[in-house]
TrEMBL record:
The keyword Coiled coil applies. Component of the FACT complex, a stable heterodimer of SPT16 and SSRP. Belongs to the peptidase M24 family. SPT16 subfamily. This is FACT complex subunit. It comes from Flemingia macrophylla. Residues 834-924 form the Histone chaperone RTT106/FACT complex subunit SPT16-like middle domain. PANTHER family: CDC68 RELATED, FACT COMPLEX SUBUNIT SPT16. Residues 506-516, 1012-1034 have a biased composition (Basic and acidic residues). Component of the FACT complex, a general chromatin factor that acts to reorganize nucleosomes. The FACT complex is involved in multiple processes that require DNA as a template such as mRNA elongation, DNA replication and DNA repair. During transcription elongation the FACT complex acts as a histone chaperone that both destabilizes and restores nucleosomal structure. The keyword DNA damage applies. It comes from the Eukaryota. Residues 25-192 form the FACT complex subunit SPT16 N-terminal lobe domain. The lineage of its organism: Eukaryota, Viridiplantae, Streptophyta, Embryophyta, Tracheophyta. Residues 7-20 have a biased composition (Polar residues). GO terms for cellular component: FACT complex.
Length: 1068
């Protein structure tokens, strides 16, 4: 059998001399496809098979050349292997095969299957080594004549592939004898093309795997390689790039594809073209010229891969500092390419697909019509180009479900505006592999982007600055959003000046956008929570008869009804445990034990609003009860029981309240036999499931419309719908201990009994161990080196497993049904990261393409860049070792996010990152009171807009207007604030916009008060004394009382004083 370049699947170097046991024909597939073959022959005998009574297929000897033959394709489709120098003749009642002894031994196994499938007997004509085979050929011809005679016909019609010239002595002898017979010969190439056109599910799976390999090579190798070559200005020839890419295709593991190398091959040698010489045919060859990447250069890359003999193809064009004509032509080509794919639906004509492309070009760029390729692609499968399925203007064949096409469209030999000889002429090409399904068209190579922003590279920044005015003059051309700036030759204008100019433009755009949003009332926010069940709805006993019979006049705990029965005035009085705020016990010197129970009472500070106060406004409530006992053991048991019961009830009610606010999710559709779930095992989850049992790892599976994480425990399961995922992140372990997948959701879900918007799955890449021996180990200790190598290998293995899972899920999300979700795993850009304190501890915060994240420490930080209004960098000044970053969101009802203690060394990097992501930033010397600022803006948006919008934060502008004004650090001063008054009420109404330390101290005191669980008598006494001292004697003057009050509460909270404080204020 032939070398793998001719299509055999396994083994790659399988020759005819190999033992027959090495090959196993899939009898089920053979039976099904033989039946399909005979059915198609019977139904289309006249129009496609030339009224043939017998079909003769002669497969040529093996060749090192990469070629596609219909005889080879039939061998592979029917038997799974190529059988070179083999002649097959199909008749209604018999199948005759002339071959060598070893091939005959393999084909013996299909005799029974052939009889069961179509009722035909398989007759093997074994050709010995020294036999020329003519006698065996005569026997086959006699069988053909005998069949015609039995059917009552004088002559026989034999179909064969007329375009395939005979090779080798055996086939030359066969062709000569066939033509010398009196048979009527007809070409059956069209019949074979139609037979191969519609693919089975098994064939489509092979094509999808080939496409997965093709796109992985394009994304993970070709694009990266080109970027490195151009960025480092290397000299590399097209042929060298071709050879390196071919090696990668033949070793899928190099691009993290878990496909067996034995099953893959190239469709054609990869094509790289640049420098003005372009050939858009698949037969093009990468020449030995160097890759050309000067300004206005075009680079065309085409890659084709096969999996189990089934082909896929992709082609992309990359633009380097594109001129207006190039960018316009590419945009038109992209629209035309998408129009072709959009028109390819079952029942449509093939000519309509090409006409859709022509219509787009005629509408958007009529001057380019003559440069459009004459075909939009061909059918693809075992053959790279399936004849009869050309997408051109003349083909009237109908598109059917199961067909697969290589949609390839381009502009040939366009003339550029540049005068350089190598760039004057250029071509553009786009190609994708497309599967025709019943209800949709599936682009299986779509994960390799062809959007202009992803293929256009900026080579020279100073040219970029001048280019927009030129582009505006070209009809239909828009400024290019370049994917990458590879290097800068601009030494005239500093980076800071360019950034300042860009920020000024961003400020103008941001103020216009904010004004439109505020004018339109587009400031949605708020928390639409459903009402939580109040304690009024918690009833221990509905009827007095439900009370348990009193045993003794002592405190009892009714676990079933969640009640505490207290002996009061000789009766057992029940209280639901939810009404109890705290319970404590103590013992005096006389060994008397006391139990103190403090109840939740409406109207007390920091207690939740209760419906009881509304229902029974005149009621008197029990605030506290104390009991004495000589039995210390009983008192301890009671306290412990009440605390345990209360904890259970509070947890249950909290979970119930959380679940009441959840958005109903769609139901997870589990993968069936056609779609095997993508699986990643041995993962831990955060937040972790509740319970006291030992934590166990689980498995994450990607199903039809979502993920499912489950462990071996029945109740530990989490479903995450694709539609609920807002952002997905993959962070491989580099300097961290874990490799993780993180999902940030639109709506909360429950993980165990926790409500969360962030779910993370991770694996520890190395064990956390500590050497307690005390001795130092040598850096050259063999055991130490071996252990480090094992840890590195384990880390790399885990990272590759996660990367493979991510790639497969990205491919799944690339399917048309998920286009509206815009899902793709994002990866943090570590080189842009910086340390900071977003919550309580210092962490390393890292930007991604769409977010700012911190995914290692909890609570997690995920900020969507598109939701950011502006960023204010606070405490920025000379001599400061660190500064703070305040993020203001477009939803002004949402609290700002502040990241504290960022090292000043990170300032320039953060400014550069904010500028490149088109986020407007300001700088201030003090921390601002953002809650008051946002309240003022939302209360009077018109004044905010008329006052210049966010420009009140522009420190440079404010300083230039009034250098001596203290208000330059205050921030935006609302116009309707009245002047300071001496009275306390007026002072409290006009809060400062610059945060003071007193605000935070008061906030801290309130938080401490919230945590208070009931005061002792000594504390109550002390508070009363403080209040008396504050109030003072009746004879004290008003001035003395004010002085005492100021002394007891610390510094004054007046707006004027707090604004001039040089201290750094605390976190909100």
């Amino acid at each position: 059998m032939a070398d793998h370049r001719n299509g055999s699947t396994q083994p790659p170097n399988g020759k005819a001399s190999t033992a027959g046991s090495a090959y196993s024909i899939d009898l089920n597939a053979f039976q099904l496809r033989l039946k399909t073959f005979y059915k198609h022959w019977d139904e289309h005998k006249t129009d496609l098979w030339g009224s043939s009574d017998a079909i003769a297929i002669a497969c040529p000897p093996p060749s090192e050349d990469l070629r596609y033959l219909k005889s080879t394709a039939l061998n592979l489709w029917l038997l799974g292997f190529e059988f070179p120098e083999t002649i097959m003749v199909f008749m209604k009642k018999q199948i005759h095969i002339l071959c060598s002894p070893k091939k005959a031994s393999i084909l013996e196994s299909v005799k029974k299957s052939a009889r069961e499938a179509v009722g035909a007997d398989l007759v093997l004509h074994v050709k010995l080594k020294n036999d020329d085979g003519t006698a065996l050929m005569d026997a086959i011809f006699r069988a053909i004549r005998a069949q015609s005679t039995s059917d009552g016909r004088d002559s026989s019609s034999v179909g064969y592939i007329s375009r395939e010239a005979p090779e080798g002595k055996l086939l030359e002898a066969w062709t000569e004898k066939l033509k010398n017979t009196k048979f009527h010969l007809s070409d059956v190439a069209n019949g074979l093309s139609s037979l191969f056109a519609s693919k089975s599910n098994e064939e489509l799976t092979s094509i999808k795997r080939a496409a997965y390999l093709t796109t992985s090579v394009m994304k993970n190798f070709v694009v990266t390689k080109l970027e490195n070559v151009i960025d480092e200005e290397k000299k590399v020839s097209h042929s060298t790039l071709m050879e390196e890419t071919e090696k990668v295709i033949l070793e899928p593991s190099k691009v993290n594809c878990k496909l067996k190398a034995d099953n893959v091959d190239i469709c054609y040698p990869p094509i790289f073209q640049s420098g003005g010489e372009f050939d858009l045919r698949p037969s093009a060859v990468s020449n030995d010229e160097l890759l050309h990447y000067d300004s206005a250069s075009v680079i065309i890359c085409a890659v084709g891969a096969r999996y189990k003999s089934y082909c896929s193809n992709i082609a992309r064009t990359f633009l380097i500092d594109a001129d207006p004509l190039q960018s316009r032509a590419y945009e038109v080509l992209l629209k035309a390419h998408e129009a072709v794919i959009g028109s390819m639906k079952p029942g449509n004509k093939l000519s309509a697909a090409y006409q859709a492309a022509v219509s787009v070009v005629e509408r958007d760029a009529p001057d380019l019509v003559s440069y459009l390729t004459k075909s939009a692609g061909t059918g693809i499968g075992i053959e790279f180009r399936e004849s009869g399925l050309n997408l051109n203007a003349k083909n009237e064949q109908t598109i059917r479900e199961g067909m697969v096409f290589n949609v390839s469209l381009g502009f040939q030999n366009l003339q550029s505006e540049k005068n350089k000889s190598k760039n004057k002429q250029f071509s553009l090409l786009l190609a994708d592999t497309v599967i025709i399904n019943k209800d949709k068209t599936e682009i299986v190579t779509s994960t390799s982007s062809k959007a202009l922003k992803d293929v256009a590279y900026s080579f020279n920044e100073d040219e970029e600055e001048e280019r927009p005015s030129t582009k505006a003059d070209v009809k239909g051309a828009e400024p290019i959003m370049s994917k990458t700036t590879l290097r800068s030759d601009n030494h005239e204008i500093s980076k800071e000046e360019l950034r300042r100019q860009h920020q000024a433009e961003l400020a103008r755009q941001k103020n216009e956008e904010t004004a439109r949003r505020l004018a339109g009332g587009g400031n949605e926010g708020g928390d639409n929570r459903s009402s939580v069940r109040t304690s009024a709805e918690l009833v221990a006993y509905k009827n007095i008869n439900d009370l348990p019979p009193p045993k003794e006049m002592m405190i009892q705990i009714d676990q079933k009804n969640e009640a505490v029965l207290l002996p009061i005035n000789g009766s057992m009085v029940p209280f639901h445990v939810a009404f109890i705020r705290t319970v404590s016990s103590q013992q005096d010197t006389n060994r008397n034990c006391y139990i103190r129970i403090i109840f939740n009472v409406p109207g007390t500070p920091f207690s939740s609003n209760d419906a009881n106060s509304m229902k029974f406004p005149g009621s008197i409530y029990l605030k506290e009860a104390s009991f004495r006992s000589k039995d210390s053991r009983h008192i301890s048991e009671v306290v412990q029981s009440i605390k345990t019961l209360r904890r259970q009830v509070v947890a249950r009610e909290s979970e119930r309240a959380e679940r009441a606010t959840l958005v109903t999710q769609e139901k997870l559709q589990l993968a069936n036999n056609r779609f095997k779930p993508i699986r990643l095992s041995d993962l831990w989850i955060r937040p972790a499931f509740g319970g006291r049992g030992r934590k166990i790892p689980g498995t994450l599976e990607a199903h039809v419309n979502g993920f499912r994480y489950s462990t071996t425990r029945q109740d530990e399961r989490v479903d995450i719908m694709f539609g609920n995922i807002k952002h997905a992140f993959f962070q491989p372990a580099e300097n961290e201990m874990i490799t993780l997948l993180h999902f940030h959701l639109h709506n909360h879900i429950m993980v165990g009994n926790k409500k969360t918007k962030d779910v993370q799955f991770y694996v520890e890449v190395m064990d956390m161990v500590q050497n307690v021996g005390g001795g130092k180990r040598s850096a050259y200790d063999p055991d130490e080196l071996e252990e480090e190598q094992r840890e590195r290998d384990r880390k790399n293995k885990i990272n590759v497993e996660f990367q493979t899972f991510v790639n497969r899920v990205n491919d799944l999300w690339g399917q048309p049904q998920f286009n509206g979700l815009d899902l793709e795993f994002d990866q943090p850009l570590r080189e842009l990261g910086f340390p900071g304190v977003p919550h309580k501890s210092s962490v390393f915060i890292v930007p991604t393409s769409a977010c700012l994240v911190e995914l290692i420490e909890t609570p997690f930080l995920v900020v969507t860049l598109s939701e950011i209004e502006i960023v204010n960098l606070e405490r920025v000044g000379l001599g400061q070792k660190n500064f703070d970053m305040t993020i203001v969101f477009k939803d002004f009802k949402r609290d700002v996010l502040r990241i504290d203690s960022i090292p000043s060394t990170s300032l320039d990097g953060i400014k550069e990152w904010l500028d490149t992501t088109d986020i407007k930033y300001y700088e201030s010397r003090l921390n601002l009171n953002w809650r008051q600022i946002l309240k003022t803006i939302t209360d009077d948006p018109q004044s905010f807009i008329e006052g210049g919008g966010w420009e009140f934060l522009n420190l440079e502008a404010t300083d230039s207007e009034s250098e001596n004004s203290e208000e330059s650090d205050k921030g935006y001063e609302p116009s309707d604030v009245e002047p300071e008054s001496d009275s306390e009420d007026d002072a409290s109404d006009s809060e400062s916009l610059v945060e003071s330390e007193d605000d935070d101290e008061e906030d801290d005191s309130e938080e401490d008060s919230e945590e208070e669980k009931g005061k002792t008598w000594e504390e109550l006494e002390r508070e009363a004394s403080n209040a008396d001292r504050e109030k003072g004697n009746e004879s004290d003057s008003e001035e003395d009382r004010k002085r005492r009050k100021a002394k007891s509460f610390g510094k004054s909270r007046g707006a004027g004083l707090s604004s001039s404080m040089p201290k750094r204020s605390k976190l909100r």
